[in-house]
Amino acid sequence: MITFSIVDQCNLSCQSCPAEHISRTGRLRYAPVDFCRRVFAKIARDYGNPRIPLYCLSEPLLHPDLPGVLDAAAEQGLTVEISTNLNTQRDLAPIIEHPALERLDISLDAFTQETYIKGHARGRMEIVKSNMRRMAEMRHDGKVYVKFLRYNDNAEEELLMQEFAESLGFQFRSFPATYFPYGDILEAVTSGREYTPPAEAAPLLSRLLTRDFWRVVPTPAFSSGVCHNQESILFINYAAKIYCCNFATYHAFGHVGDFLDLTAEEIHRLKQDFPFCQKCHKAGVQGQNAIKCALENEEELQAFFAFLDRQDMSAAAGEPIYIYGAGWLGRHIRTILAGKGLPVRGFIDDSPALGQTVVDGLPVTTFAALDPEEGRRARVLLGFFAPHSLMRQLDARIRAGGNPRGLQQVGAFFIEATSRGGQTS
């Protein structure tokens, strides 16, 4: 995936955004259309046709010629994605109906203005709803998604917004809101200090579904892994400068090099050896994934998955589900799935101590020991905190056994299962 942030600002200020503290009061800086053509041409030449979100902690609808940017992508046979707060008065039809736009996400957390203003300073819900109604009359071809951020005080408004969005023909997803000021946390951890949120963050923290979501607990196992941002995503700003990750995009310390001046091989090498990434690895922080390390016990994990409780998982009924990892996290995931009417058939674990044993009434085996047909059809869910390097090895092993899905993370499985509308695979 290549994230190309075509503007450097957002028109709102949202506490849950990692870039909320960055000053956005200066002149808007953006990538001109001719410059975008050069970027897209290099992407097509060196990377084929990857996913290309046109945002990174920014609002792409601020670009003065967004249809021109879409034209530039289309010239190279590329498609792009947009995420927006939809607080705009611009004409949306040339954007929504453009064939180069593959997906548009509307990010919000409320249905009423009273609740919306808590998380979106300067935001106006009536503008969002008006734009949604206008978009429903356009040829959107099912490419519009509403992404709803869940707090502990907006459950009723989630249901109202879901009904509203689906009545307009838009797809609806909900996710837990988070608080993760990465730069500040990394600075504290690498300095041997415990990060303490500032007093002004208290209102947001009191609304989160998961307490202490920001807390980082570095562990040797986690620090040995490969960061997903470093390995699988390229972050480019409006000037085509490469940054090591989304959290560092607005900081000089995260600048890796210039996209248009480097080959794909040079970019990969620079990212692998980048000093800031080494510092982050050593601290065991590694961006958003470090949030997982803050989930220290079953109570916190239950809170993290609480937002899934209302989702309809019946679309996945009847599928053979296995959990990779028979430790406490794997057993906890089994409990959650059972509560959704999805029985787990067994655990997969390579530990010699657990081989061919029974845990919580379920058999423990290795993937290779499964019946070949069962192995091809199985949903294999990750049930422990694994470094990315190990996750890739396990995924490759499962795919080599004939399973096209490979190793799935639980969150991705829940999202897929709730989006299939009753279809089973």
Please give a structural write-up.
The chain has a 6-stranded mixed beta sheet with strand order 11-12-10-9-13-14. Strands 1-6-7-8 form a 4-stranded mixed beta sheet. Strands 2-3-4-5 form a 4-stranded parallel beta sheet, covered by helices on one side. The chain is an alpha/beta fold and 425 residues long. The chain has helices at residues 33-47, 66-75, 93-96, 113-119, 125-136, 155-167, 182-190, 202-205, 220-223, 228-232, 264-272, 275-283, 290-293, 298-304, 328-339, 372-377, 388-400, 410-419, and strands at residues 2-4, 80-84, 101-108, 144-150, 171-176, 234-236, 241-243, 255-258, 321-324, 344-348, 358-359, 362-365, 379-382, 407-408. It is 36% helix and 14% strand. Mean pLDDT is 80; it is low at 216-225, 287-300 and 419-425. Helix 3 links the parallel strand 2 and strand 3 (101-108). The chain is built from 18 helices and 14 strands. Helix 1 (33-47) packs parallel to helix 2 (66-75).
